[in-house]
Amino acid sequence: MHPLKKLFGYARHHRRDVWLATLYSVINKFFDILPEVLIGVAVDIVVSGEKSFLARKVLGGFGITDTWHQLLLLGGLNIVIWGGESLFEYLYSLKWRGLAQNLQHELRLDAYQHVQKLEMAYFENQRTGNLMSILNEDVNQMERFLNGGANQIIQVFCSSVMVSAVFFALQPKLALVSLLPVPLILFGTFWFQKRLAPRYSEVREAAGDVSARLNNNLLGLATIKAFATEDFEAEQIRKSSEGYRNANARAIRVSSAITPVIRMAILSGFTATLVYGGYLTLHDQLAVGAYSVLVYLTQRLLWPLTGLADVADMYQRSMAAIDRVMGIVTTPIAIPYEGKHFPSSGVKGDVRFEAVSFAYGERTTLHDIDLTLPAGKTVAFVGSTGSGKSTLIKLLLRFYEPKSGRVLLDGQPIDSLNLQDLRRAIGYVSQDTFLSDANVADNIAYGDPNISRAEVEAAAKAAEAHEFIAKLPQGYDTRIGERGQKLSGGQRQRLALARAILKNPPVLVLDEATSAVDNETEAAIQKSLETVSRGRTTLVIAHRLSTVRHADCIYVMEEGRVVEAGTHEQLLAADRGYAALWRLQTGERAQGTPTAEGLPA
Ligand SMILES: Nc1ncnc2c1ncn2[C@@H]1O[C@H](COP(=O)(O)OP(=O)(O)OP(=O)(O)O)[C@@H](O)[C@H]1O
């Protein structure tokens, strides 16, 4: 579908404004060409005097023979025309620009809201910077088009029609000659446009690439500095920026040719009017007044067509941008939000995985997982990195859908539940929690302005965060910088934990939530977690086994399968992978293991 059609489809509820704006543009153009007609009338008055056009009874009107009165009428008409032109210029400007503002606001918001709802898999193939450039620059480009471009297109079209009408009324033969270049100009513009469209698509893609690279590098500045790869990265940016420059150069080569080519076509029309019109006037086939009107009108008709070059340029640029924005808005949401209402206050927290298999791409990450995690229990997942522990949690949060099998919460398949209800029932501390550039208290109370400072502090205490927060320059009011970068890794983890605790969810998921804190703090967090996890299902993923030794059940994962399960004691007694790992981490020796001295312990 054509981008403009998509945009109009999207802006259906603004249809009235579009029509009004178009009407104002048309009326303004009508007033705009009338002064040229008045010049002709003025010439007619001074040349023909009492036999002028105004002295005749045209359409039952005028019939003013007195030249002074004719001039007064001319003056009056002039004032009305200029007044009307100004008024409608104000009105169309107000309408188009208002429309541009409303649409850019709505489209940006809609596109952002839509992006938020797209499934995680979508983002794996997208670059953040590119999405940023669509939500920002491309939406702005559409705004610029509605600000001025739409009106320009309408007015060029209107002046062509209106001026042609005057031409034909005054001197049809001359009209044919002067208007001869118009189809040529229109065809030429169309020809150029067709060549410009793919070039501007390339420009927008290249702009997205630059934006994506800049975004990526600005986020990774610490690594760039640490590896002293400033020159290498600058080279990458240079290449990307050069891609943008080259894409633009290809578009410029075409778009720059439009104006000169159109001017040549106009030249022929203008020369024809001057010479042939003069000839007709000299041979009394055209009045002097009409001749002057036509000479001026040729200017009015043909010169704006040079503006077609700019309009065509802006039009193509905008269509490429609109296509990208509408592409986002119309991307189907693979994991829908709708489903059965399931308020977290009524959730017990019974979690089940039934024969769940999953693959991110081709390679299967989880094989046939069957798990029952009873409400109120604390279960742990351990195992080597990449064994699929986090993936299991992502399936529970429905970031991804299983390839086969199903996940249930309180006996309800999670894909039947309202997605936000499901996620509200789960407090999730991920390996990389998103902290925003707000103060500490707002980060803990995240998204709920009604939470009291006392509640925030209680959660912070449970997460062993209160002490370090109290030492910050402004305590709970200290701003923590973008992504919380003014805090240490362990401090960020504790804020994330406090945030999840404050949510008071029936299911709490801690994915490596205390990996960056020291042993002493971890022990303290463990103690408060014992209180916190009471009465809720708690899923803990940890590499440090001491973190999970008190769990009701520990699952050991290996390459997407659960290979051991049981309490800490049971797993030690089984003396398999878990027991070996425990010994490795704690330095305990198994019975019969030789000591450093070579003697059995
Ligand atoms: N978005 C993704 N796209 C493709 N593959 C992925 C994606 N996320 C994870 N994987 C792969 O899936 C496997 C399991 O990853 P997962 O994050 O579940 O492991 P984990 O057990 O939590 O590891 P860790 O202990 O290191 O956090 C890994 O091999 C990983 O490379």
TrEMBL record:
InterPro entries from the UniProt entry: AAA+_ATPase, ABC1_TM_dom, ABC1_TM_sf, ABC_transporter-like_ATP-bd, ABC_transporter-like_CS, P-loop_NTPase, Type_1_exporter
CDD domains on file: ABC_6TM_exporter_like (cd18565)
Main location: membrane
Protein's membrane topology: Multi-pass membrane protein
Stated name of the protein: ABC transporter ATP-binding protein
Highest taxon listed in the record's lineage: Bacteria
Gene Ontology MF terms in the entry: ATP binding
Subcellular localization, as worded in the UniProt entry: Cell membrane
Record-annotated ABC transmembrane type-1 domain positions: 19-317
Domain (ABC transporter): residue spans on this chain: 351-584
Keyword ATP-binding: yes
Keywords, sorted A to Z: ATP-binding, Cell membrane, Membrane, Nucleotide-binding, Transmembrane, Transmembrane helix
